[in-house]
Amino acid sequence: MISNKMKNLVATSSTIRAMFEEGKRLSAIYGEENVFDYSLGNPNVEPPENIKIAINQILNKESANLIHGYMNNSGYEDVRTKIAKFINKKYNTNISHNNIVMTCGAAGGLNILLKTLLNPGDEVIVFAPFFGEYRNYVNNFDGELVVVPPDITTFEPNLQALTDKISSKTKAVIINSPNNPTGVVYSEKVMQDLAKILSEKEKELGTSIYLISDEPYREIVYDNVKVPYILKYYKNSFIGYSYSKSLSLPGERIGYIVANTDMDYFEDIMSSLNVANRILGFVNAPSLFQRVIAECLEAEVDVSIYQRNRDVLYDHLTAIGFSCIKPQGAFYLFPRTPIADDIKFCEEAKQFNLLLVPGSAFGCPGHIRLSYCISYEKIQNSLPAFEKLAKLYEVK
Amino acid sequence: MISNKMKNLVATSSTIRAMFEEGKRLSAIYGEENVFDYSLGNPNVEPPENIKIAINQILNKESANLIHGYMNNSGYEDVRTKIAKFINKKYNTNISHNNIVMTCGAAGGLNILLKTLLNPGDEVIVFAPFFGEYRNYVNNFDGELVVVPPDITTFEPNLQALTDKISSKTKAVIINSPNNPTGVVYSEKVMQDLAKILSEKEKELGTSIYLISDEPYREIVYDNVKVPYILKYYKNSFIGYSYSKSLSLPGERIGYIVANTDMDYFEDIMSSLNVANRILGFVNAPSLFQRVIAECLEAEVDVSIYQRNRDVLYDHLTAIGFSCIKPQGAFYLFPRTPIADDIKFCEEAKQFNLLLVPGSAFGCPGHIRLSYCISYEKIQNSLPAFEKLAKLYEVK
Fold first, then answer.
1. Where is the Aminotransferase class I/classII large domain (chains A, B) (predicted)?
2. Going from the N-terminus, what domains does chain A have, and what CATH number goes with each?
């Protein structure tokens, strides 16, 4: 028999698989081009050409044992140095390779971080709506997830509600901006206020409260919006970064954790991240891709492709009566559902071959998430389906 | 403050780091070529040329979004199918892609497996000497490691002692052949006897006892020795495979778990491995290297290089009086120490610039591990140092 923890998770995951199977079933009936799958966050924009060039150069220039070999569990020192310099230049920080641990994507990074921080029963605060995996990551280390209810007018962190949730058990707060599922970019003002609240609570409680900023979507932003760099606002802060979306490399599992030098217990934490990377079985971030991204720090995917998708979908949905905040980042829209039951709404949408994810999966019922990292053509073709869906509920 | 679990681990890991720093210190004084570091299991034999060819072909032939994109958390279905066919042909089994989950090396594989199997307090049995990380992997999921004492004449699993250790709490048994640290390949007879004991105990206790064979060294064997394929001997068995050593790709984190179809709770277990891969933060085994190894299933590193190292080192050490079983696989020797205190012995060895790992780290004091995956030249140059060390204890 599988473990008790996994029993529940396997049951949940079969819902996701059911959605996937439904997509395949609909495709078989109506043709793949007539099924509008807005459920997956799999980047459709091509990785930059630099990736291929970098791989070839590395294979031709460096020794195979170096490229594919073991290194320090925290990653190649020269790669971490290059990343640190890049960050320093871009964000006017003052970090070195010692602040960085290369990780198997942001997911691997968050896990080694929570392994490092959490004793059983410690609390981790998230702001609804939030990426559902945070619940599992915290549960991996027997922490308790504490959910701050959403502010559904702005979808910025609800700071008033946060204050009441912080206790002596609070070990960490996770934020995610640009946000999955709303696409909202948290403003500098909110980051400053958040930092102030956490600092004051640390003083009041005599504890360290670590702020973890999960940033796989940092580079996927529109309208010249700036994403505040959290290390500059709060002492006890980490960033979990990933190249999954910024370079369209989600399958390669490459990212890093960066930590503020002056945080509480910095040395212990960095040592622990190194060991956690090893003992959780990551051992190290994949070696070739550590070297690849070091050669591609300035590279970017073509964000205008996502922006065009956002614009057509946002404009159309709001025109036909859906209420939705205009996202300035990531590749998600998070419209309100015309009925309170978002799960029922997603079921109904299937009759128009629309595959959507209920907001409940993100701790925010009454909404749906649309991943618009699909082709522009498919989005255009899906617009009539949304019209039919809207009509069903007389959204207007 | 870091978590209680990590506190102890960070303390232990600083011992390993101290060894590494000692190596650097000695190198600075005596020159790198005069320091004989037998402490690391980092393959020095080059990956086969096919790896580079396969990478180039894949980059030129397939779409970048497929190569570097997300796939099922268990891995690409076509890759798993190719591996299953390869296994079926080589070992006369009858498995499909459904029996396989691609993992971030064997370390990632063992972790998702233990996450799947263990409730807190469940026991996992290992045979001393054993790879020290098993203790950490089991501890990650609050299991209890139960150590069967070594049989230091053969270094095969001590089956008599095993019988007494099995209880209703026994969830799994881990074996590792070719073995780290002894290099011993477990015989077919021992595998048959082991399977018999486990089956009988399952019947007696009314439980399922899963056998996990950790096999990163399967292809690193000498003298035409055969490594029994455990799926054929025991129903409830898994193999954790890795390409780290067989193709010299340890940094790339690529391997798989294969499970017997007729095992207890097969469907639940495979679903759970899939979900565990996701929620522990691996998400999936690195995508490009899944496709690469699928093109290199017949490829091999040049094992004769390791064999030459084994022969010169084994012959010399036994000639000067060390007692050591002749290993038939992996790239380790595990000689007895002339004094009971193996840690003290390793300390003493440093005066001759020899870096060795005490057997205590593998649950088997009174021995040392030598990783001979270093250059032949360095091994030859180190022989006088071993002579001086032997003389110190008048080994002869």
1. 37-381
2. 4-48+301-392 (3.90.1150.10), 49-294 (3.40.640.10)
